[in-house]
Structure formats: structure tokens, C-alpha cells
């Protein structure tokens, strides 16, 4: 019988579940795709784009929005520019204006990233073009896969002006550029750490198919029989 050590089984299973779910939801390809764009340092555009991707439907469904039923397909979401602005606040908690959000959405439309349809007051249906590319599992991505939208690597004729106009006067470009750099560094470090941890854990599970409980690194593990034995010992000690 291998050496089994008592620890929080539920917490460990939850951590592993979260890691697997992150891969299924495409957080890694999302980050990589955004990083390669010409506007990635603009924190307002980047945050709005991530909000759209994470809010889009992963399967067809009917939703109730503002008292109306909307039949949404994969990669679609229904929202209003004003509500999107509530998630884009400055350091003082002031949300981005509706007009500024509309300009940013128009920028994404011009870049060929989304299409917009619907009445402005009742709701706007936003479709993420090529949404399936962002929902890929990490395992399916080549090490050096190109950008999902080649045109994003080069600023369009009006890309810079469109980006600046989206929130001109609302913040200082230099400040947000530095903030964007810091966020990129933190996220890159986090993604590298997560991918390395996932690879090591998957390698461990492949080599030890009978492992029932194990630590995050796989250094300590036990079979289902070990788990039952350790619980029996624990109960005896607590009596």
C-alpha cells in the first residue's frame, strides 16, 4: 500500500475541475488571440472584447432580456451599450458612456470581429464572428498558431483613430498603455504556470491510472483503497 496523506480532497478536486474547465472554455486561446492584436494595449477595448467573448452563448438557447425572448445562436449575446458600459469603469468607478461603447463596438465591426443587429433600446444582438476559434481547447492549439483574424495584426486605415475616439478624453493613453503592459505580464505568467501545472498533472494521471486521491503536483497520492484506509484510521484517532 502506498503512503497516503490526509488533505482536503474536495478542494483538490475543485482545483482540478477549474483547470479543466478553463481549457474547455478557451481562456488560453482567448488571451493569446487578444495579445496579438494591434489594440491589445488599450485596456478599454481589450476588456470590452473579453466581456463579449465570455458573455457569448456556447450553445443555441432562448433568453429573456428586458421582457423579450431572444433566440441566440452560438457566439451571440443580447445586451445594450449602456449595460456594457457599466462593466467598463475608471479608477473612480465611473462607467463608460453609452456613446463611447457604441464607438468601440463600431471599431470591432470595422475590424471584422463582430456584427451588430437589433433595436438599441430593447436590446442589441452581438455576434462574435468565428467564435468557434476562441472556444477551442488548448490541446488543439499548435505552439505557434497565427492570429485568428490576420487583419488584426495590422492596424486598419482608421484603427488608431477609431480606438482613440472610442474614449478620447476619458483617460490618459500613457497610463493605460502602462497598465496594459502590466496586465499582459501578469496574465502571461499566470497562463504559463497554469499550462505547466496541467501538463505535469496529466502526465502523472497517465502514469498512475489507479490514483484516487493526489496532491496538486502528484508528489503524494493514493488509491481508492488507501483513501478508505486513511479515513478509517482518521475516524479511530478522533474517537
TrEMBL record:
Residues 142-197 are annotated as: Disordered. It comes from the Bacteria. Residues 19-131 form the Bacteriophage lambda Replication protein O N-terminal domain. GO terms for biological process: DNA replication. This is Bacteriophage lambda Replication protein O N-terminal domain-containing protein.
Amino acid at each position: 500500500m502506498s503512503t497516503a496523506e490526509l488533505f482536503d480532497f474536495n478542494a483538490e478536486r475543485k482545483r482540478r475541475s477549474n483547470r479543466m474547465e478553463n481549457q474547455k472554455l478557451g481562456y488560453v486561446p482567448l488571451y493569446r488571440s487578444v495579445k496579438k492584436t494591434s489594440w491589445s494595449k488599450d485596456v478599454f477595448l481589450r476588456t470590452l472584447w473579453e466581456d463579449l467573448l465570455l458573455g457569448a452563448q456556447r450553445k443555441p438557447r432562448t433568453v429573456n432580456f428586458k421582457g423579450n425572448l431572444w433566440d441566440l445562436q452560438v457566439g451571440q449575446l443580447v445586451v445594450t451599450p449602456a449595460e456594457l458600459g457599466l462593466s467598463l469603469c475608471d479608477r473612480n468607478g465611473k462607467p463608460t458612456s453609452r456613446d463611447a461603447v457604441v464607438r468601440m463596438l463600431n471599431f470591432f465591426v470595422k475590424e471584422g470581429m463582430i456584427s451588430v443587429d437589433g433595436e438599441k433600446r430593447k436590446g442589441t444582438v452581438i455576434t462574435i464572428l468565428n467564435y468557434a476559434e476562441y472556444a477551442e481547447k488548448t490541446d488543439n492549439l499548435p505552439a505557434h498558431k497565427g492570429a485568428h483574424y490576420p487583419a488584426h495584426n495590422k492596424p486598419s486605415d482608421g484603427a488608431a483613430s477609431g480606438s482613440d475616439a472610442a474614449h478620447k478624453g476619458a483617460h490618459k493613453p500613457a497610463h493605460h498603455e502602462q497598465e496594459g503592459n502590466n496586465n499582459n505580464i501578469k496574465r502571461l505568467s499566470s497562463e504559463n504556470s497554469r499550462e505547466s501545472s496541467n501538463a505535469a498533472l496529466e502526465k502523472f494521471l497517465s502514469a498512475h491510472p489507479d490514483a484516487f486521491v493526489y496532491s496538486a503536483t502528484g508528489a503524494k497520492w493514493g488509491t481508492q483503497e488507501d483513501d478508505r484506509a486513511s479515513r478509517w484510521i482518521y475516524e479511530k484517532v478522533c474517537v
